[in-house]
Specification:
Layout lengths: L1 H17 L11 E8 L6 E17 L2 E16 L7 E10 L2 E4 L3 E4 L8 E6 L6 H12 L5 E4 L10 H11 L8 E3 L9 H6 L5 E2 L6 E6 L2 E5 L7 H12 L8 E5 L14 H6 L1 H8 L2 E4 L5 E6 L2 E6 L16 E5 L3 E7 L3 E8 L4 E8 L2
Parallel strand pairs: 7-8, 8-9, 12-13, 13-14, 14-16
Antiparallel strand pairs: 1-2, 2-3, 2-4, 4-5, 4-6, 7-18, 10-11, 11-12, 15-16, 15-17, 18-19, 19-20
Helix pairs in contact: 2-3
């Protein structure tokens, strides 16, 4: 136990050291970020946070392309980007004569017609930054092009300090790999979640409680299972019965509380009532959730429901009977989805590169 406590203390010290940004002037620091999200063929959102209210900007090739402030929580939209193009950028901050600037990062927009790429999925990172870092290291070794987070990013979504522990861990990918999260129950009222994360425009709280985004040939559909679900069910039905966006071959749905599960949290009644009937009619290819801290795959009406909750929170054992369960493993874990024009190759991994589950979703 002493060695574990020492390891966690050393890890937290490392997080604090990450807050010291190379080139920062005394009195002003870029505390965390940039965090990339809402990435399309021609645009992107970035967020970051400074130690004091400041003017901030994104610099590409020495030119300021997006500027805002003075605020501490910065959020900007980059527009006019070219499909399939790579940009090298930095974040610059200025306040009362003090300045800070990050190193250069790489951002690559999806090419038009992109249909071969890898998605990463993980969640429930809330309470142990060291365990979260283990999962991120293992996930990034497989080079995902975009990441879905199944909720409960932090233990207390109303605590700025909790977010200050979360963002340095994801700094391994967040400047260059877009993040598509959903709200978990630990995000609280979501006010800091909406303020700090680069979310696509959607509906409900913060204009992003539920949303849809397209990355390459995948449409990502995000719902909020912690609040009223009937309105979202109407939105989901309209979305799934409308024509797909151009170039979309696959649909992946993401929300926090799973409908089919081995517990200890039981299946979500709102999802079962308002969402699953539409999800199981054949218009969706995969559903990913979290909430229970393990990996589980349930198969219902030909649709695979994944619980991907092994991101760092205390692990759970199975406590309930789940007639749809195909695979269960209580360990730190994540999922990769290799996308091609004809199939989704889905693999669940532990942090030691052991395969926990593998299956294929073929084009219908």
């Amino acid at each position: 136990m002493k060695s574990l406590r020492l390891a966690r203390q050393l890890f937290l010290l490392a997080l604090i050291l990450l807050l010291v940004v190379t080139g920062a002037s005394a009195g002003l620091q870029i505390v965390w970020g940039p965090v990339l999200g809402d990435l399309t063929t021609t645009s992107a959102q970035l967020t970051w946070y400074t130690s004091a209210p400041s003017y901030g900007e994104v610099r590409i090739a020495g030119q300021s392309v997006a500027r805002g402030g003075p605020v501490q929580a910065h959020k900007v939209m980059l527009s006019g980007l070219q499909p399939g193009a790579t940009y090298y950028y930095s974040i610059y901050a200025e306040a009362d004569g003090a300045t800070a600037e990050t190193r250069k990062y790489r951002l690559t927009t999806p090419a038009a017609g992109l249909s071969n790429f890898t998605l990463g999925v993980y969640g429930d990172t809330r309470s142990d930054p060291a365990a979260h870092a283990q999962v991120v290291r293992a996930l990034m070794a497989l080079h995902p092009d975009a990441i879905l987070h199944t909720g409960d990013l932090v233990s207390d979504g109303s605590s700025v300090d909790n977010w200050h522990h979360f963002f340095p861990v994801i700094a391994r990918y967040s400047p260059s790999v877009p993040l598509y999260p959903c709200l978990g129950n630990h995000e609280g009222d979501g006010s800091l979640y909406f303020r700090f994360l680069p979310l696509p425009a959607g509906g409900g709280l913060g204009g992003g409680e539920w949303y849809t985004a397209v990355y390459g040939s995948v449409q990502i559909i995000v719902l909020d299972s912690s609040r009223e679900q009937a309105t979202q069910g109407l939105w989901l039905h309209q979305l799934l019965t409308a024509p797909r966006p151009p170039g979309v071959l696959w649909r992946i749905v993401e929300f926090h509380n799973p409908p089919y599960t081995s517990g200890p949290h039981p299946g979500d009644p709102g999802a079962l009532k308002y969402w699953c009937p539409d999800l199981e009619r054949g218009a969706v290819d995969l559903v990913v959730s979290g909430h229970n801290h393990y990996y589980e795959r349930s198969l219902k009406s030909g649709l695979n429901y994944l619980t991907v909750g092994g991101g760092g929170a205390p692990l759970y054992d199975a406590t309930l009977s789940n007639p749809y369960r195909k695979v269960f493993d209580s360990t730190l874990s994540f999922v990769t989805v290799q996308v091609s024009p004809t199939a989704l190759q889905v693999t669940a991994w532990d942090t030691h590169e052991k395969v926990l589950d593998r299956f294929t979703v073929a084009k219908r």
